[in-house]
Amino acid sequence: MATCVERSKARTARFNVDPSLFANPATIYNFVEYSRAFGCTNSGERDDLWLKMKEEARRDVEQEPVLGSYYVSAILAHDSLESALATHLGYRLATTSLPGPSLAAVFLAVFLEDRSIGVKVREDLKAIKERDPACVSYVQIMLNFKGFLAIQSHRAAHRLWTLGRVPLALVIQNRVSEVFTVDIHPGAQVGKGVLLDHATGTVIGETAVIGDNVSILHNVTLGGTGKVDGDRHPKIGDGVLVGAGTHVLGNIKIGSGAKIGAGSIVLKEVPERTTAVGNPARLLCGRDKPIKLTNVPSFTMDHTSFVSQWSDYVI
Question: Between the chain's N and C termini, which has fewer beta carbons within 10 Å?
């Protein structure tokens, strides 16, 4: 276990930084240099991913000084990823009657109380960096990728939901829907290493379960059929890839390592390591002898390799 650099009392994480303090580029650079040493978890372990994010932030500020005060308040003024994320989410979701500092305090309390959330946050960051070719840095994920921000907000809302703090959980769900156009019921269960790519229009129902290392594109619905109460939403296995515009409806299982083609409507169970596509969705090469995938589709992000096998009509 690495030794944590001793924190200065003047350098504690904070929820509000006066931008005027950093109006001078020289002041920004001095603060950036000073902040480089702080990269420890609350348990004292060295947090390499957080150190990497701070280094990325420092380089961004050197390249674009106009971002100085924003990056300081969002990243460099904090001594942990949890503190920075809580503050960023609090201010992004704030309203005039629901102040940013109050929401940030809620998020931070949840993150510190349930340390497993921090593990999932880091796995999500790594997943996005590895799978999304548009991703240039961890800092950009945390500041600008609304799919990531929506998932982390949901993690806090889900914790509150399980603790019986239902009104607050639902308020967070509503604000996430309004700000990020992603609607995830706080009752839904979401694993780690999850990528919501673009994320716009994604809807995930109350009893949905999403496994580990899942990739979901935009405009996806994991919903009910409208006919039943109780456990009524899909169960998505590990390593699944769900294409854009897909709707998976009902309490059905999508087996681990399966792939759902874009624009599909899935109403029945999809076996492990198979490909389903169409409206209604059908298994590639039929249910009796479906083609079995050899790679994890959520990792490869391959959306089109099945096309030549699926139809004789290929443009």
Answer: C
